[in-house]
Amino acid sequence: MIHLYKKDIINLLPHREPMLLIDELYDIKKLFSATAVVNVKKDSFFVQGHFPENPVMPGVLIVESFGQAAAALTAHGLDRSTYENKLVFLMGVEKARFRNPVIPDCKLVLKIEAIRSHGRVWKYKGEAFVDEKKMADAVWSATIVDKK
């Protein structure tokens, strides 16, 4: 079974610290689904200001984590020449629900699935869990574009 760690994910995505949020990608079903891990730490960059006395992972970063996991799943399943010199841009978020706050020190587990693709446009859905408790879910679309 394939298990990708941050050093492997760096080879798939253009994101770098501190914006590379996903730490692992596993249970990969080529171009269909995967599970990702985001280790939300007390020293994560967003904790200092959101909110210092009651730190919570911002919902927008949960959505970004979904997007990064989906981009890594897609890049891992495609021939490298298909995504080399390309970027994946979020096109839209149809639904995003934040059910429980994500508090540092936890392992945020993202279950993502590619719903469909049409050319360079992909649609995904995902659910986020901490200790098997659903924290968030979303449906979003993204596109692969040339670097400019």
Summarize the structure.
The protein has 148 residues and is of the alpha+beta class.
Number of strands: 7
Q: In the CATH scheme, what's the topology name?
A: Thiol Ester Dehydrase, Chain A
Q: List the secondary-structure elements in sequence, H or E.
A: EHEEHHEEEE
Q: Estimate what percentage of residues fall within beta strands.
A: over 45%
Overall tally of structural domains: 1
Q: Figure out the total of helices.
A: 3
Multimeric organization? single chain
Poorly predicted spans: none
* Coarse structural class: alpha+beta
Largest sheet: 7 strands, antiparallel
Rg, Å, rounded:
15 Å
The CATH class name reads Alpha Beta
Considering DSSP H and I runs of 4 or more, what fraction of the residues is helical?
A: 10-25%
Average pLDDT taken over every residue: 94
CATH architecture: Roll
Across the major sheet, the strand order is: 1-2-3-5-6-7-4
> Could you say which overall geometry the principal axes of the C-alpha atoms support?
globular
N-C termini distance: 36 Å
List the helices and strands and how they pair.
Blueprint: E1 3-5, H1 6-9, E2 24-29, E3 33-40, H2 59-77, H3 80-83, E4 86-98, E5 106-118, E6 121-130, E7 133-146
Structural features:
Thiol Ester Dehydrase, Chain A; alpha+beta; 148 residues; seven-stranded antiparallel β-sheet
3D architecture notes:
The structure is a single chain. The protein is α+β, with helices and mostly antiparallel strands. It has one domain (3-146): Roll (Thiol Ester Dehydrase, Chain A). Helices cover 18% and strands 45% of the residues. It has three helices and seven strands; from the N terminus they run E-H-E-E-H-H-E-E-E-E. It has helices spanning 6-9, 59-77, 80-83, and strands at residues 3-5, 24-29, 33-40, 86-98, 106-118, 121-130, 133-146. The protein has a seven-stranded antiparallel β-sheet with strand order 1-2-3-5-6-7-4. Strand 5 and strand 6 (121-130) form a beta hairpin. The longest helix has 19 residues, at 59-77. The chain is globular and about 45 Å long. The termini are far apart.
